[in-house]
Amino acid sequence: MKVAVAGCCHGALDKMYETLELLQRRHNVRPDLLLCCGDFQAVRNEADLRCMAVPAKYRHMQTFYRYYSGEKKAPVLTVFIGGNHEASNHLQELPYGGWVAPNIYYLGYAGVVRFRGVRIGGISGIFKSHDYRKGHFECPPYNQQTIRSAYHVRSIEVFKLKQLKRPIDIFMSHDWPRSIYHYGNKKQLLKMKSFFRQEVESNTLGSPAASELLQHLKPTYWFSAHLHVKFAAFMQHETNSKEDLPKATKFLALDKCLPRRDFLQIIDVEHDPNAGDSLEYDAEWIAVLKATNSLVNVTQSSWNMPEKNGLHAKWDYSVTEEAIKEVLEELNHDLKIPCNFTLTAACYDPSKPQKNMEPVHTINPQTTEFCAQFGLTDINDRIQQAKEEGSGRGECEEEEEEEMDSTGSAEEPSEYNTDNSGLSSFNPDEIMLDEEGGDEDLSTCSVDPSPDHPPEFSTSFSDIRIMPDSMAVSSDDAMDSNNEELEKSGGSKQVEEKSSTERSLKRIGGDENGNTGVKKIKRRNQAIYAAEDEDK
C-alpha cells in the first residue's frame, strides 16, 4: 500500500490534503494512509491557542477546526503524533490515543496501532532530561513552565515501548534519534544547517530516548520532523546471534508544511491484502498497557523505571503470548478501533470570536471508554482527583520559569550524558514565550530548493517523490558516489543555503552566567514561524 508521510503540519491541514489531491490528479497516485510526525496543531478554538507553546503573535487558528466541527473530513485516514507546538490541552485528553476529528487519529503519549496488517508505532513530544523521569502531572490552565513540560517525553512511555517484542514496521518520533546523522549524508546536512555542527560533533543533537528505542525496536522505517530539513539515513543494526537475520532501519526526516517545501514523502509498504481498511488496536500493545498500568504516576517528582539492579522485585513487563491471547478474547478477536469521536469543546466560529476563552481540564469520553474496556487508569481522572484532594502537583501555580539549557537542569541527574558545556546558551529545541520586543530577531534559517531542481508540481505545492529502496550511506567517505545513485532514483534533492545576508542568525551575547539584557531567540525554531511570504 502507499503511505504518505508528512513533517511538521503546523495546522495547515487544507494545504496538506490539497497537495495529496493534486498528486492524485497529476500522477494518479492515491495514498492509503497519511502519517504526520508532530506539530500537528489540532486547535479547536481560542482556548486551545492559549495552550500552544508559541509566542502569541504566532497563534493562528489555521484550518483544523473545520475538520473538528465536521465542516470538512480528512480525505485519507490520518495518524499523527504530538510535537512541541501543539494544543496540549486537547491532546492531553487522549493520553492513550483517540480520534481528534473524523478520520484523524492521535497515537497518544505513545502508542501502536495496525492498518492493513502494518504495525505503526510512535512517541509524542520532545526529549528534555529535566522532565524525563517525572509523571504526567500537567493540566490546563498551564503556566509558563507546564505549557512546555506538557509535551516533554517521559521515561514511562519509553519503558512501555521497550517491552514490545514483535516487529514494528513503521515508527514515528518528533525529534530525531540521537546519532542518526552519522548514518546519512552528514556533510550535506551541515551544509544546509551549519548551526547543527557543534551538536553533531559532540553527538548531542537529537533525543537519546528515541535513539534507545531505535536500537531496541529496530523498525523497518523511522520517520521524524522537528528540525525542518529533509534528511535520509540507513542504519544497519547489530544482530544478537549468528542465527538472527540482519535488520536495518530506513530513517527519513521531513521538512515543514509550507509552499515549495519537500514536506511529503510517498513510500510503498508491504501489507496484508486480506486485512480490512479499518484502523485497529495492536494486541501486544494493549497487553503491555495492562501490564504496566501500576506504574502510572501523575506527580512531578522524579522517579526511575524498574530495572534489573537489585532494587526492584520486577523489571520485565514484556507480555506473554497468553496475555496477548487474553486481549484478543476480550475483544472477541475484533481489533477495529471504534469510530467514537465526540466533541469535547466548543468549535471556533469566525463570526463570533471569543478571545478571552479559557482552557479547562477535560475528561474525554474516548479515554473513559478505553480505560474501562481494558482496566486502565485514566490519567486525567487521576490528576483531577489529586487536585480535588489538594495533594497533587498537577494544579498550576504562578511561578517564574527558570532558564534551562538544551539538556535540562544541571542540578538534576540524568541517565543520559547531557554534558554540552561547549555549546551556546541557546536552547535549539524551543521558542521563547516572552513577547517583549525582538521581532526582528526571528529570522528563518530554512533551505529553499535549488534552481537546478525545481518542484515537480508547481511553486504552490510540495515536491513529492517515491522513496527509493536504498536511501543513504554509512560514512562520509562514500557520500558523493552514493548521492549520485540517490539522485538518479529521485530520492535526494539538491539544496543550497541562503546567503548570510538573507538568512543571518542574530546571536545574542551574554555574560558568563548566560544572562542577557534582551530576549533569547531559540535558534533551531527560528524557521518555524517565519513569515510564509519568504517562501512564496
TrEMBL record:
It is found in: Nucleus. Residues 386-536 are annotated as: Disordered. Residues 386-395, 485-510 have a biased composition (Basic and acidic residues). CDD domains: MPP_Dbr1_N (cd00844). Pfam families: DBR1 (PF05011), Metallophos (PF00149). It comes from the Eukaryota. Residues 415-427 have a biased composition (Polar residues). One of its GO terms (cellular component) is nucleus. Residues 235-380 form the Lariat debranching enzyme C-terminal domain. One of its GO terms (molecular function) is RNA lariat debranching enzyme activity. One of its GO terms (biological process) is mRNA splicing, via spliceosome. Keywords: Hydrolase, Iron, Manganese, Metal-binding, mRNA processing, Nucleus, Zinc. SMART domains: DBR1 (SM01124). Residues 396-405, 431-442 have a biased composition (Acidic residues). The keyword Acyltransferase does not apply. Its cofactor is Zn(2+); Mn(2+); Fe(2+). The keyword Transport does not apply. PANTHER family: LARIAT DEBRANCHING ENZYME, RNA LARIAT DEBRANCHING ENZYME. Belongs to the lariat debranching enzyme family. This is DBR1 enzyme. It comes from Daphoenositta chrysoptera (varied sittella). The lineage of its organism: Eukaryota, Metazoa, Chordata, Craniata, Vertebrata. The gene is Dbr1.
